[in-house]
Design goal:
By secondary structure, the chain is of the alpha/beta class. The chain is about 45% helix and about 15% strand. The chain is built from 18 helices and 14 strands. Strands 3-2-1-4-5-6 form a six-stranded parallel beta sheet, sandwiched between helices. Helix 1 packs across helix 3, helix 5 runs parallel beside helix 6 and helix 13 packs across helix 14. The chain is globular, with a radius of gyration of 23 Å. The protein starts with a strand and ends with a strand.
Length: about 425
């Protein structure tokens, strides 16, 4: 099939490349010329393990191409995916900003030829697909098309495997014709017996928000249990095992830490709250999860401060890991973006290291942060080490070397990578989360 992917951000680039790997002919469109030039030169603007090789392979085999010219990519397309950004509105009210979605719909309308399915791939509020259909019809009354919803469920750092071996594919359609097109798009997965959930457009739109909200609730729950464990002298890691082995609960997303972040959970929970409020309902569990997440980051600041004797003023803190999770360079809503400015404000000096995220971090964090070439460089003369993101290379640090480099042997493990007994035996004053 001929597929056009509008938007070459994280979702658009990964999805378009994987569709090409399925054997479809995919044209990825973006208005940012520098990004398209970069992609044509084989340079990937985001870090996602294995994506560079997959892009190169499919470009070389003639199934994947990049352009800024939407008018050339639309007429031959049988399926057009809109995968542009839907950030939280700059108004600060929690609503999703749909400016790019509607602009894409308006532009697409003028170049449609023959029957086409336009699919919302971006995470959008309920009712967006209907608005996209209205815009296209107004701009081109003669267009033969359907609009569908096909939410993505890709984890950063594991996006390719998630796409190729998904738990399910959700499609929201309003006609047999559009459903058939989407089933053809995903035919390779259908042949592998991947469940395809075909539902209404509104249900598909809401499914993405509901899934992310549920996971955010789960993370906030275990973070609250971590605080309880610290108060009563229990161990949250053992507690998580004890409840996670229950098949009704499951062991995923039961890892305490400094709070959730990234491009999805923070904005999607807020957007869901606004959607629900517009319809006169409430999601109090989700509202509580958002509050808990904000409080968790503040608790981490206090934990660091307490380990430094009650004040971070004049102290040098080594930060290991800046991105919101490992295997990505994404700094959006990363806990570090909240915790580090709070420490700097009270007079701390921060030396930071991240395997992939330091370039991005410079756009999100204060200029006064000093970025180091290695984790050990960051630890030199530090009054404390804070393990913020659990990259693999931080899981087996040479503890003797770290201790020798530091001014004071204080280790604050916000991801519970290390065991307290091991750290104490190595001569550190150690604290984790929920222990």
């Amino acid at each position: 099939m001929n597929i056009t992917m509008i938007g070459t951000g994280y979702v658009g680039l990964v999805t378009g490349t994987c569709f090409a790997e399925f054997g479809h002919h995919v044209t990825c469109v973006d208005k940012i010329e520098a990004k398209i030039t970069q992609l044509k030169a084989g340079k990937i603007p985001i870090y996602e393990p294995g994506l560079d090789l997959l892009v190169t392979k499919n470009v070389n085999e003639g199934r994947l191409q990049f352009t800024t010219q939407l008018e050339k990519a639309i007429p031959e397309a049988e399926a057009i995916f809109i995968a542009v950004g839907t950030p939280t509105s700059r108004r600060g009210d929690g609503y999703a900003d749909l400016t790019y979605i509607y602009a894409a719909a308006k532009e697409v309308a003028h170049h449609l030829k023959g029957y086409t399915v336009i699919i919302d791939k971006s995470t959008v509020p309920v009712g967006t697909a209907r608005q996209v259909a209205r815009i296209i019809k107004e701009e081109n009354p003669e267009a033969d098309f359907n609009v569908a919803s096909n939410p993505e469920f890709l984890r950063e750092g594991a996006a390719i495997s998630d796409f190729m071996r998904p738990d399910r594919v959700v499609i929201g359609v309003e006609s047999d014709r559009s459903e058939q097109v989407l089933r053809e798009v995903y035919k390779p997965l259908f042949l592998r017996d991947t469940p395809i959930v075909s539902t209404t457009i509104e249900t598909a739109e809401l499914t993405k928000y509901a899934a992310n909200a549920f996971l955010a609730v789960k993370i906030s729950f275990i973070n609250e249990m971590a605080a309880v464990c610290e108060a009563v002298g229990a161990n949250v890691s053992d507690l998580a095992k004890g409840i996670g082995m229950d098949g009704r609960i499951g062991n995923k997303f039961l890892h305490p830490g400094p709070g959730y972040g990234g491009s999805c959970f923070p904005k999607d929970t807020l957007a869901l709250m606004r959607i629900v409020q517009e319809h006169g309902e409430s999601v109090r569990i989700v509202e509580a999860a958002v509050e808990v997440n904000a409080a968790q980051k503040a608790r981490m600041v206090k934990k660091i401060r307490d380990m430094l004797g009650g004040s971070e003023s004049g102290k040098t803190i080594a930060i290991l890991g800046l991105t919101f999770k490992p295997e990505t360079d994404d700094m959006r809503e990363a806990p570090a973006a909240t915790i580090l400015p709070a420490l700097l404000e009270k007079g701390a000096h921060i030396k930071a290291h991240d395997p992939k995220g330091m370039k991005e971090a410079k756009e999100y964090l204060p200029e006064s942060i000093e970025y180091m070439e290695s984790s050990y460089d960051a630890c030199k003369d530090a009054d404390a080490v804070v393990l913020m993101t659990e990259w693999n290379q931080y899981r087996a640090l040479d503890l003797e070397r770290v201790k020798a480099l530091m001014k004071e042997p204080v280790f604050i493990d916000l991801r519970n990578v290390y065991e307290a007994e091991t750290m104490k035996a190595a001569g550190f004053r150690y604290t984790g989360v929920g222990k």
